[in-house]
């Protein structure tokens, strides 16, 4: 183990700004989960009082000051470690299970929470259409590391529409005027749930390829729920027979 040089720190700061393929993980549990799954870190930076962490990685582990951890971490309360991992984007593929489609979602907290629920419900394939990037640190924290257990595809609308049409995929979307989700008859083996943008909902291009519309009944004149909450309720309802 060695002390990080100024050149290395400058290079990592540059990569954090510019690279879309590097994940800067700053949560110890998420880092350990990623390493258990076989992801290979490029660097592990630790404060001196954390140097006993990750003993099998001394060849790429560097001692840094607390201020460096704060500069490379997006967390308000850094845990004294930053692990830089190269993240290879999944090549766009046909889903093998129920799947989640996020249409232009921009809130990384919402996206991370939806990925976490999707993983818990067996929605193993997740399509991010013009949405927040998967290497966003808040998204990673909100997902509690489940991005490493899911097949996540970042794509354009055209790419996704072509995939749907080529494979005759069955999509449903949410709307207040849709069929009550708790009365919904799941006639197909594989369902794709579309969650639209936080402010504008599902885009017209994606709406055109949806087969059905569902809604969540609400009392007390409540008109809508947060995207991650409504998506979670519907995914659990679709997947309930598997539990």
Report on the architecture of this protein.
- The protein has helices spanning 6-18, 28-36, 66-72, 108-120, 137-142, 157-167, 204-207, 227-239; strands at 2-3, 22-25, 41-46, 61-63, 81-86, 99-103, 125-129, 151-155, 171-180, 192-195, 212-215.
- The radius of gyration is 20 Å and the shape is elongated.
- It has a six-stranded parallel beta sheet with strand order 8-7-6-10-9-11. Strands 1-4-3-5-2 form a five-stranded mixed beta sheet.
- Helix 4 links the parallel strand 6 and strand 7 (125-129).
- The model has no long low-confidence stretch (mean pLDDT 94).
- Helix 4 packs parallel to helix 8 (227-239).
- With 243 residues, it is of the alpha/beta class.
- The protein has two domains: 2-86, Ribosomal protein L30/S12 (60s Ribosomal Protein L30, Chain: A); 99-242, SPOUT methyltransferase, trefoil knot domain (Alpha/beta knot), CATH 3.40.1280.
Rg result: 20 Å
Number of helices: 8
Task: Report the mean per-residue pLDDT as an integer.
Answer: 94
In the residues, how many domains can be counted? 2
What is the overall silhouette? elongated
List the helices and strands and how they pair.
Blueprint: E1 2-3, H1 6-18, E2 22-25, H2 28-36, E3 41-46, E4 61-63, H3 66-72, E5 81-86, E6 99-103, H4 108-120, E7 125-129, H5 137-142, E8 151-155, H6 157-167, E9 171-180, E10 192-195, H7 204-207, E11 212-215, H8 227-239
Parallel strand pairs: 1-4, 3-4, 6-7, 6-10, 7-8, 9-10, 9-11
Antiparallel strand pairs: 2-5, 3-5
């Amino acid at each position: 183990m060695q002390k990080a040089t100024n050149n290395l720190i400058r290079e990592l700061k540059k990569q954090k700004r510019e690279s879309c393929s590097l994940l800067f993980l700053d949560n110890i549990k998420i880092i350990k989960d990623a390493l258990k799954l076989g992801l290979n870190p490029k660097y592990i930076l630790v404060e001196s009082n954390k140097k006993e962490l990750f003993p099998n990685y001394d060849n790429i582990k560097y001692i840094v000051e607390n201020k460096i951890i704060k500069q490379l971490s997006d967390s308000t309360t850094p845990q004294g470690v930053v692990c830089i991992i190269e993240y290879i984007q999944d090549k766009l593929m046909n889903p093998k299970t129920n799947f989640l489609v996020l249409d232009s979602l921009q809130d990384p907290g919402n996206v991370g929470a939806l990925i976490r629920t999707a993983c818990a419900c067996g929605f193993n394939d997740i399509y991010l259409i013009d949405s927040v990037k998967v290497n966003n640190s808040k998204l990673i924290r909100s997902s509690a590391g489940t991005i490493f257990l899911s097949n996540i595809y970042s794509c354009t609308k055209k790419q996704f529409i072509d995939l749907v049409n080529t494979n005759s995929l069955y999509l449903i979307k949410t709307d207040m005027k849709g069929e009550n989700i708790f009365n919904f008859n799941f006639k197909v083996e594989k369902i794709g749930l579309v969650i639209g943008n936080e402010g504008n909902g599902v885009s017209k291009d994606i709406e055109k390829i949806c087969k059905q519309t569902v809604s969540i009944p609400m009392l007390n004149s409540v008109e809508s729920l947060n995207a991650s909450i409504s998506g979670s309720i519907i995914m659990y309802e679709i997947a309930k027979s598997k539990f």
